[in-house]
Amino acid sequence: MKRSLIAILAVAAVAGLAAGCGDDDSGGSGGSGDALTIYSGRNEKLVGDLIKQFEKATGIDAEVRYGESAELAATIAEEGERSPADVFFAQDAGALGAVADANLLAPAPPSSERVDARFRTGEWVGTSGRARVVAYSTERVKASELPDSILDFCNDAWKGRIGFPPPNASFQAFVSAMRLTLGDGRTREWLKCMKRLEPTLLENNIQTEEAIAAGEIDVGFVNHYYLPELKAEKPGFPVANHFLEAGDPGSLVNVAGAGVLKSSDQQEDAVRFVDFLLSEQGQRYFSTKTFEYPLVDGIAPPQETKPLDQVQGPEIELGALGDKLASTLSLLQDVGLTS
Amino acid sequence: MRLVAAAAVLVASAALLPLVYLLVRAAGADESSWDVVLDGRTLELVGRTALLVAVVTAGSTVVGVGMAWLVERTDLPARRVFAVAAALPLVIPSYVTALALLAAVGPGGLLGSAGWVFGLPGAGLALVLATYPYVFLLCSAALRRMDPALEEAARTLGRTRAQVFRQVTLPVLRPSIAGGAVLAALYALSDFGVVSLMRYDALTRAVFQQYRSLFDRTPAALLGLVLVTLTALVLLLEARSRGKGRVRRSAAGADRPAQLAPLGRWRLPALAVALAVVAVALVVPVGVLVSWSLRDSAVLPEAGELLGWAWHSVVGSGLAAVVAMVAALPVAVLASRRPRRATALLERATYASNALPGIVIALSLVFFATRVLPAVYQTLALLVFAYVVRFLPQAMAGAHSALTRVDPDLERAARGLGASPARVLAKVTAPLMAPGLLAGATLVFLSTMKELPVTLLLRPIGFDTLATEVWTATGVSSYGTAAVPALTLIALSAPVVWFLQVRPRGTLAEDR
Fold this sequence. Notes:
heterodimer, A: 339 residues, alpha/beta, 12 helices, 10 strands, 42% helix, 15% strand, globular, B: mainly alpha, MetI-like fold, disordered C terminus
């Protein structure tokens, strides 16, 4: 027994050394070397190839830390001035807003002006858009039955058939957008109505889509791009997207985006990364690979979607949504849609 | 002993770092943060969390002790197979178990839909399946080491089998049951994956909501402190349940396997129960993973890639296991050899972080490393340190049971016969403790293999592990692609469980 203990210790020591050496080959990990350090809240399967294209196009080495956007935002806030990150590439505007509020982002690069002012602030820029849609079961719902406004789902015909994910950031952003356009009173009425219709409350968009496919619910309020992902995974996935009319609060267009860290000692390369995301190559990638909306004019939208100017959500600036979040959460709690 | 005490204090302070971080963050709390926590809803969440913890602890104790007794003390058919199979669910990440349960009996599931699967029943079941192996492993080890003469003597004195179990076996098992139950309870407290998949509102979901939606670390820290308070309660209950009696028995007085209770007509029902446990905890998750991996959409990784992830997982987990074992030792020695209020407190302190969600532990080390030791930030060294902080209690559980085997009289005898302290340590103490320490190290190894939140934030860039790959693939709902690293993780961990359950079967004579 003692011998096996010693053996384990020896193996562990050798393994540790070997791993240490192995890591040196990849150029250290502190991120302060030559490589550009990107904190990506976007999944490697979605943007890994895009980052490779960036490396190829610019000759800049990129080191990417993948994680959940919110957790990376909290990490950057905790790191403060000492952050190894040069760029924060986030899944949603909220995470970028949080880092910007902590005063850790540099001014957005000039290339960001190619993006509509609604989709950027002075510190970060949206790089791709995601529209809110109503996903519905192709087996139990006819497209013609679906209303054009999210407000019209407040109808007993939909009792027990609706699902949505209150803990999800995109859903919360949509509620904030509704408050900004219709006011708190009407939003509360609508949420109460939803509550009365006994909705199925899900954790996230994917769960919502799967609940539709499984027959738990007939319609779900989600982002548009999960469906093509799921169809790729399960051919014949019996769900379709319904786009609401332009200007409806239910058709909010939210973004994934990027911001350069103020503390970065590689501002120039970091800006080139943001430039690349907004380049024709980068924008085309989002449209064809992640099925998101390009935000720079002149690039075709993804297949099976309405053009961006037709899904045009309510006239609000995304930067304004962040300030509403805390009160939106209390509203959702008050109405009884979250705990 | 002074050196041991110094080491123990050092280890305990390391384990307390996350708590210090929470206090630092909570100190900045303004009125609105307190409002979040002092809200009536928090009380409701605490109630729901306590209920979940109670259900999981009770469930995993019953299943764990029951299976251990069946496997070690009865003529259950194929009990050697069950000894390994019943421990194996430990290697399956609990969110995989939950996903598999949903895929099997959730809405539109492969085996039909069960309406009860969401909420407390589903979350409780998935967590019992994930945690009963802690109780099972510690109890079956204790039963194996138990002197059969104790039970035999009781039988000879006319006690029935039921009385023997209650009056002899159970008291001997008590520390192991308590140790396993605490691990199960802390796991249930800290879990986020299962409760979110099963849609059960527990405290961890509120903590995550603060981070994920509001990016607010202060109310999250306050809620984290509520979790720490609950941990303290759990530990208090455990200390009570341990009772005052102490059983110290270093070696089997009778050097032979224990007598097995014939199950008689209960043999088949017992077999059915054992099969059912293994089926739900092991066969269903593995079956679901295999079926996912056979989907057309599954992208199989290249062998080299897979090997790289597996290597990273094994290296990180192996180092964590060894360091945790070494770290647990001085604390356990101090607590058992100098049993005072202060040393007991020191030991309990090492449990403080275990009920915190991994994200809190990760952020606390981001906070300290960037400020105090930037050179180690996002290196393997810090990652291993974080693993140790997170899983130290599992090593402690092993060290504890190891120490109950060491009768101080034996050491004194060796000293009396002229052996130097070092020689006593090498020849008496270490060999007696080795199985327990190994068991603790194994638990840490297996937990680290599955670990995700700490790994994501603190690993060196590019240090992809099997667990991070599962996360990446499920993040875009490519369950087929996720299945291969998940199955590899299980396959790599399985031999370790086998080693733990089969290898130390020998008696002390063989150990030498």
